[in-house]
Amino acid sequence: MNILNYILIRFLWAIPTLLGVSILVFLMIHLIPGDPAQLMLYPRGTPEQVEALREQLGLNDPMAVQYFNWLKDALFFDFGKSVSTGSSVISEISSRFAATVELALSALSIAVVVGIPLGVIAARKKNSLIDYLCITFSLGGVSIPVFWLGLMLIFVFAATLGWLPVSGRISMDSGMQIVTGFYLLDALLIGNLYAFGDAVKHLILPAVALSTIPLAMVVRITRSSMLEVLSQDYMKTARAKGIPGRLIIYKHALRNALIPVVTVLGIQIGSLMGGSILTETVFSWPGLGSLIIDSINDRDYPVIQGVVFLATLIMIVVNLIVDVLYAYLDPRIRY
Amino acid sequence: MSINKTAQAPRSFIGEAFKQFRKNRLAVTSFILVIVIMLLGVLAPLIALEDPVNPSPENRLQPGFWAGNFDHPLGTDELGRDIYSRIVYGAQISLKVGYTVILITAIFGTLFGLISAYYGGMIDLILMRITDIFLSFPPLLLALSVIAILGTGLENAMLAIALIYIPQMARIVRSSVLTVKELPYVEASKSLGAKNSFIIIGHILPNILAPSVVYLTLLLADAILYTSALGFLGIGIDPSTPEWGAMLSKGRDYIILGQWWVTVFPGIMIALTVFAFNLLGDGLREALDPKMDV
User: Fold this and answer.
1) Which of B120, B163, B232, B268 could form a disulfide with B245 if both were Cys (CB 3.0 to 4.6 A apart)?
2) Does A24 touch chain B (CB under 8 A)?
3) Range(s) of the domain holding residue A27
4) Side-chain-side CA neighbours of residue B199 (13 Å)
5) A166/A211 same-domain check
6) What ipTM score was computed for the predicted complex, to two decimals?
């Protein structure tokens, strides 16, 4: 089977899953014990307002009609209106989307840039002190609650040393103008280096906190898969041919060792989303994580539905991409 | 000597596993740590210094032993409650939540996995599609959605967390059963006319015990982490409950003011407990099933 067929089949398999997800997300509002409209307006809603909201949400239609209407809109990212702010759910989401992506990408970059070299060093110097430190870190890193780590970082670097800000994305006086919503990019686009530095300072602590779990995973997987590759016959061949040590490590070994790392990063996307909800809460980072917590507290179900559906969609797509990438990276994989 | 050794009767499965486990020093240490944490929880009413819930505003935010305060060795929180006593009672809650989640997961995961693997066909296809759907949600978001539907509270939080793991458990059980099902002695038992229920209880369940125990121990670590996350977010658990995560939820306000003890100690307990169960799970995996890699 060639790779295009494989991609097509994986894509087709994702469709029933996505439909199932959409049914569950849609049902969310109907599974609430009691009248959702009344609950969302509690305690201020008059009977007329409740009836108007029921009409607006389409709650008076038959269930199947409601679902198809919801799905039809959801496919175009229309999740209705937020009950607490009155603006459309998708505008609420898109105004915060970039903040979460910026944070998550920074955390992933830290995990990759720091984790891969650490894993390689640990594998090359197996059973050395640095190897033991890496193993301990990769075991401990997954046990430390990310929100507690965030609080500790705030305590040390913000409250005690005063090097970095406690919360938020940018200072009021930085002269930041929003172009794309990615503050690092925006600061460069408007040529404001002060704002760029300010945005970086705000980003460091949350990104470091969020990176711990993926970093621990990357170190662990790079180390073990590097050890496996280094013991292969073709490594001996490369050495016998007289290729210099560094070149062997980086060109022959690492390339092969990275395949499982890609998969692990892909699997991590779900836990990265969870971690980002917690990190955003700790650092008052105005992203999707804090949006969902606020909307759960406000019982703003259209927003909850929108965020959950979109996040799950992203997770399904990322897993698809990782699967395809995996098949591409490793020509031995043929399905 | 060596002849004697080879002539020895083979040890039982449990005996061999125990020997393997004892050799792993890290695993033994983690086992002792787990016992200590359990004892903290069980003995909480005896070793706690104060009631963990009643506020005493006159004692608020006092530092602990480092400031010579031995009435409140780990200090007091923003409502004047003794942090040490709350941590001790917190062990009770974390373990209770952990075990309940495990119990729910084990029962339903095993049930669905068994049905799926044993009956196969359409039933298998449908059940596995459903697990696919649940597994495609980001785990914390799935738990938060369940709480958004059912409302807050410890019981709902436990259900929400269990829902993350039931599909995974079902998968593990299913794949173990599929392997065991084809083994000759199951075939033999079948041809001798054994009932389905007898084959499942007598032959299949004992064989999937090892991977399940390992998975459930690692899951316990995860479940404790998720419970504390829900407590921290102030969504799963009533904030007056002495739950470790909930104890941290107001932490940022005080840590900025330098009152670090409100946050530091409960966090250390979470990390230590999760770490201990993770190590224990790794140790059990090596002892019970060296081939397995979750």
Assistant:
1) B232
2) yes
3) 1-75+302-335
4) 22
5) yes
6) 0.88
